[in-house]
Design goal:
6-stranded antiparallel sheet, globular, 423 residues
Length: 423
C-alpha cells in the first residue's frame, strides 16, 4: 500500500515541493499519519497528503527505484522507533516548468547515476521482476566451451588462462558449477581493489622484477613489525594499545548493572579511496567511500568500535566562478559524464560528512590538493580525483582474531539486477 505526502516549499517557485512516497505494511491510523507529517515537516513548509500539484508544468526527479536509498533506511528506523511500520520511504523533488526548459532542469539537477525523471506518480516500488532459477553450467559434459558461453552471458571477465583453470578445477571436483558460483568467481577475480595486479609478476622492459608491488608495500612492515597485530590480513590495521579501565555490562546482551574492569584495548586504523565513483557522482561516491571504510573499522577481528575519521581530496584546477586563482591555466573543460573539480570538493565533502554523521563518527581532519599545469609541454592534472577516507577506532584484545568457520555454516550472498556484486 502506497501513500504520498507533499511538502510544499513556501516562497520558492523553481522548486515547488518534495514528494514523499511511503510503502506501508498496513493502513495507518489518523494519529500515525499526523506523526508521519510531523517527521517530514521543515520550517516554512506545508505538508499535505492530498494530491499535490499535478499538471503538465511539473518535472519530477527522484531516486532510481531499483535500490533503496540511505535516506529510506534512516527514515524507516525513525518510523519504527515511533511505532509506525513502513517498508520503504523515498523522496523526490518536483520542479516548476513555468518559464524554464525541462532539459535545463535535468542538466542542472539530475544525478544520472542515482536518479531518474518520473514520467508519472509512483504507485509501487516493485519492479515486477522475478529472479531466474539457479542453473548449472555443464563443464563435465561440454568442457571449456560451456564455460566460455557462461563467461559471455554472465560477463565474468575471464581470459583464456581463467577458462582453462576453472574448467580443470571443476573437472577435478567431479561436478558442474552453478551460474551463481561462477558469478561469485567473477566478482572475486575482479580488479576492484587491484589484488591481482599487486600480487602479480611485474615485467618491465622485458625483464621480470624480483618483487611484486605487494612485496614492496610490505617491506617496511617486515623490517619492523613490532606493534602491528593484523597487518595485511584483516579489514583494518590493528596497532598494539594499552590496558585501560572500561565500563562494561555484567551480562552483555541482557539488562544488567555495569562494572569497571581493566581491559587491553588496541588501536584500529584503516583507509581507502573511492575515486571513480566520486568522479561520476560526487555525493554518493564519497558517501559510500566513507561508509565502506567505516565498515572496515567495524568488521576488523570480531568487531571494533569507530571513533573518528579523516578525509582527503586531490582534484584538478577549480576555476571558481568570479575567483581568479594564480596558475590556473589548464582545465575548465566541462564533461557531461564527469563532475568538475569544484563539484567534487563541494559535494564530495558533503557526502563523506553525511555518512559519518549518520552513524556518529566525527570528521576531525584531512587535506585538500588542487593541481593542474603544463609541464614540458605535457598536461599534468588530477583528471581522475583522489577521494581518500581514513579512520581510527579501538578493538578489545579478546576480539582481535576471527573465529574459524564451522562445518554446517551457510554462505549467503544477496544481490540482484541492480546490485549484482552481492553482499
Amino acid at each position: 500500500m502506497m501513500i504520498r505526502f507533499y511538502r510544499r516549499l513556501l516562497g520558492q517557485h523553481a522548486v515547488l515541493e518534495n514528494c514523499f512516497y511511503v510503502d506501508l505494511v498496513n493502513a495507518l491510523r489518523p494519529d500515525e499519519i499526523e506523526r508521519l507529517k510531523w517527521l517530514i515537516t521543515e520550517p516554512q513548509t506545508v505538508v499535505t497528503d492530498e494530491t499535490g500539484i499535478v499538471d503538465s508544468k511539473i518535472l519530477e526527479i527522484g531516486p532510481r527505484l531499483s535500490v533503496e536509498t540511505p535516506f529510506s533506511s534512516n527514515a524507516i528506523a525513525i518510523c519504527r522507533s515511533m511505532g509506525i511500520v513502513v517498508r520503504r520511504i523515498e523522496t523526490s523533488v518536483r520542479h516548476s516548468l513555468v518559464g524554464r526548459k525541462a532539459e535545463d532542469i535535468v542538466e542542472k539537477n539530475l544525478d544520472r547515476m542515482t536518479q531518474t525523471v518520473y514520467s508519472e506518480v509512483i504507485t509501487t516500488f516493485g519492479s515486477g521482476l522475478q529472479p531466474d532459477p539457479v542453473s548449472s553450467v555443464f563443464i563435465l559434459e561440454q568442457g571449456e566451451q560451456a564455460l566460455r558461453e557462461a563467461n559471455t552471458k554472465l560477463g565474468l571477465g575471464m581470459d583464456d588462462w581463467d577458462i582453462t583453470y576453472y574448467t580443470e578445477l571443476f573437472q577435478r571436483l567431479g561436478r558442474n558449477p552453478t551460474d551463481v558460483e561462477l558469478f561469485q568467481v567473477g566478482n572475486a577475480n575482479s580488479e576492484h581493489s587491484r589484488h591481482w595486479f599487486f600480487r602479480g609478476i611485474q615485467i618491465i622492459d622485458g625483464h621480470e622484477m624480483p618483487s611484486s608491488l605487494f612485496d614492496v608495500v610490505q617491506e617496511p612492515w617486515k623490517r619492523g613489525a613490532g606493534n602491528s597485530i593484523t597487518a595485511f590480513r584483516d579489514n583494518s590495521g590493528v596497532i598494539y594499545g594499552a590496558e585501560v579501565l572500561a565500563f562494561v555490562p555484567t551480562k552483555p546482551g541482557h539488562p544488567s548493572p555495569f562494572r569497571i574492569v581493566r581491559t587491553l584495548q588496541h588501536i584500529t586504523a584503516t583507509a581507502e579511496t573511492h575515486n571513480h565513483p566520486t568522479l561520476i557522482a560526487p555525493f554518493p561516491g564519497a558517501e559510500t567511500g566513507s561508509g565502506g571504510r567505516i565498515r572496515d573499522n567495524r568488521a576488523v577481528g570480531r568487531g571494533g568500535l569507530v571513533h573518528a575519521g579523516l578525509a582527503g581530496y586531490c582534484v584538478g584546477n577549480l576555476h571558481i566562478p568570479g575567483v581568479k586563482i594564480p596558475g590556473e591555466v589548464v582545465g575548465n573543460d566541462p564533461s557531461h559524464r564527469h563532475a568538475s573539480p569544484l563539484e567534487i570538493l563541494l559535494r564530495g565533502s558533503d557526502g563523506i560528512s553525511d555518512y559519518g554523521n549518520k552513524i556518529g563518527e566525527p570528521l576531525l581532519g584531512g587535506f585538500t590538493r588542487s593541481f593542474g599545469q603544463t609541464v614540458n609541454g605535457a598536461r599534468r592534472e588530477f583528471r581522475k580525483p583522489v577521494l581518500y577516507s581514513a579512520g581510527f577506532g579501538r578493538l578489545n584484545d579478546t576480539h582481535v582474531k576471527k573465529s574459524d568457520p564451522e562445518t554446517g555454516m551457510l554462505i549467503v550472498r544477496i544481490g540482484g539486477t541492480a546490485y549484482s556484486i552481492g553482499v
